[in-house]
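Q: What residues go here?
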């Protein structure tokens, strides 16, 4: 079964956001370090173009048959950053999610699902 393109782009975006915090934690960088700011400025500039290329690809796949260079560059950087996190501290990503956070996520998903059913199917 083929993954819908919006799910892969969404997961890539969320992984890039999560990498910001994991890299600061694993590499012991304070938030005010210049490399943290430099990375964020770089991703704002490159990520905007990549998001446009992904949008164009998903909007009209007949015209845009492949992703652009910026989208592939951002994907490669994001995966490389994640591999750095895995290499230097694999225990960080293997920690179990605390039970109260799991409960909050489950409650939120249940509320959204219930609201969707009520709004679009039962009303």
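A:
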């Amino acid at each position: 079964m083929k993954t819908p393109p919006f799910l892969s782009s969404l997961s890539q975006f969320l992984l890039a956001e999560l990498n910001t915090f994991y890299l600061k934690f694993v590499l012991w960088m304070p938030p005010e370090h210049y490399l943290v700011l430099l990375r964020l400025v770089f991703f704002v500039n490159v990520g905007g173009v990549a998001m446009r290329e992904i949008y164009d690809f998903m909007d009209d796949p007949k015209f845009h048959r492949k992703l652009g260079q910026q989208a592939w560059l951002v994907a490669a950087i994001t995966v490389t950053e994640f591999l750095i996190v895995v290499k230097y501290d694999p225990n960080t990503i293997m920690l179990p999610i605390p039970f109260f956070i799991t409960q909050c996520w489950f409650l939120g998903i249940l509320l959204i699902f219930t609201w969707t059913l009520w709004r679009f199917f039962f009303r």
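A: Context that may help when evaluating the design: The chain has two domains: 5-88, 97-122. The chain is about 80% helix and 0% strand.
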